[in-house]
Amino acid sequence: MTSHTLYRASVLHTPTSPFLDPAALHAEADGGLLVENGVIRASGDYAALSGAHPDVPVADLRGGLLLPGFIDTHVHYPQVRVIGGLGLPLLDWLDQCALPEEVRMADLTYARGVARDFLGGLIGAGTTTALVFGSHFAGAVDVFFEEAARVGLRAVTGLVVSDRLLRDDLHTTPERAYTEGRALIERWHGVGRAQYAVTPRFSLSASEGMLDACGALMREFPDVRFTSHINENSREIEVVRGLFPAARDYLDTYERAGLVGGRSVLAHNVWPSDRELDVMAAHRCTAAHCPCSNAALGSGFFPLRRHLEAGVHVSLGSDVGGGTGFSLLKEGLQALFMQNLMPDGVALTPTHLLYLATRAGAEALGLDGVTGDFSVGQQFDAVHLSPRPGTTLDAVFRHTDTPERALAAAFATGTPADVARVWIGGDEVYGRQP
Ligand code: GUN
Ligand code: ZN
Asked: How far is residue 129's CA from residue 324's CA, in Å, rounded to a whole number?
């Protein structure tokens, strides 16, 4: 059976990158999106669309903003309950806050509760696609895939693997990492909306043998993704340098294992060398920028200008639980703040923030023909921002005259409380309680 809906709203999206195209923002103050079985079939001015399709039922979403669903390209599922370990540098935060909680994921009942908390928070913030750091336990990764399928998230995730310097109860072996990874890929990759990401935690906790096992999976399965951390914290970088004396730099530890390519998303990259940026650009590898986490853990200022000048693709990540919550509105704002505070920062606009929170993530994950903007043929993945009456954002929305200004206000002061409805592939996956 065919289902049609004509969504009427103030619609904004960025089908191209504003870092390259000054006309990247498409905005319709009274716009329409014609959706058939979850796929966008037409878009434009509402009056014209409703004239051409008079019999299609209309979903009236006026009074807010309709944006493409957000795409979080770096977030840790096991860490949802430990958000807020503020004030510690990365390695102390891992030891004291993150890793003790990650050990608890061995209990699959516990893991299911965490997965539900995580997915509720993520989708309730308007995120419809996410590259998710899974668990060190294969059973907890199965649990996550099951729960993500249940709620309909476009999830890219995998088994996190490490064989040194974390804690014994989180370590595995390269052989086991390969075998369990392979089984998870065969069980989940390409099933429904799920994709698999090969995920060594970081070079600090992964021996050469472990990274080689990850490389073997990447060679064997040419469409799974790869993710890890890189160049986040100066102490971390020093330890990695000592562990890989033959490597030219941090990126080289991944490069040697064949892990740097167009399917790779490396989180943070606060302290890259010029060589690393050049190689990332040449291999079309993405840097996932996590500005709240970088500030919360004191990791540093992300050199966005150097990434852009080198030609490295950049997307956005919340990095929960090092980050401070799931809202990509907040991440966008924090990215802007940090660039404003840097001597050579990039002057970001709301259009850049929208692109970073949506289409840039789709490009990072090879999903730009599926999601990330409202072009015809894309899945209807969308978030309706509609502040409750009486809130500050509501006051601003009622007194702004253009969708562009409303977008700026949404990034400046919007929160998950302003997310009214969320759709993935045309399915409504979240509706705020009245
Ligand atoms: N590096 C290795 N593991 C982690 C983690 O869980 N969070 C962050 N922010 N960095 C890491
Ligand atoms: Zn992280």
From this structure: 19
**H/E/C letters for each residue in 119-174?**
HHHHHHCCEEEEEEECCCCHHHHHHHHHHHHHHCCEEEEECEECCCCCCHHHCCCH
Domains along the chain? Answer: 4-69+372-431 (2.30.40.10), 70-364 (3.20.20.140)
The helix, strand and coil proportions of the chain, stated in percent and rounded to the nearest 5, come to 40, 20, 35
Residue-wise pLDDT for 135-175, tens only, equals 999 999 999 999 999 999 999 999 999 999 999 999 999 99
Confidence at residue 108, expressed as pLDDT on a 0 to 100 scale: 98
- CA of 299, closest atom in ligand 1: 9
Cα(266) to ligand 2 centroid in Å equals 9
Which residues lie with the beta carbon below 6 Å from any ligand 1 atom?
76, 90, 94, 98, 201-202, 229, 232, 293, 319, 322
Q: Which residues does the chain have with pLDDT short of 70? A: none
User: What ligand has the least distance to the C-alpha of 99?
Assistant: 1
What CA–CA distance (Å, rounded) separates 250 from 365? 22
CA nearest ligand 1 atom 3, residue: 201
Mutate to test the pocket of ligand 1, among 79, 105, 131, 319 (most ligand atoms within 8 A of CB): 319
Ion ligand 2, residue ranges at CB < 5 A = 267, 319
pLDDT in tens, 215-238: 999 999 999 999 999 999 999 999
Which ligand places an atom closest to the C-alpha of 299?
1
DSSP 69: P
For 119, the token pair is 């997915």
Going from the C-alpha of 425 to that of each of 41, 117, 257, the distances in angstroms are 13, 22, 36
pTM: 0.99
**Encoded tokens for 339:** 């660039």
* Angle between helices 328-341 and 350-357 in degrees, nearest 10: 130
Instruction: Output the CA 199–ligand 2 centroid distance in Å.
Output: 11
Tokens at 22, concatenated:
């000054």
Report pLDDT for 328. 99
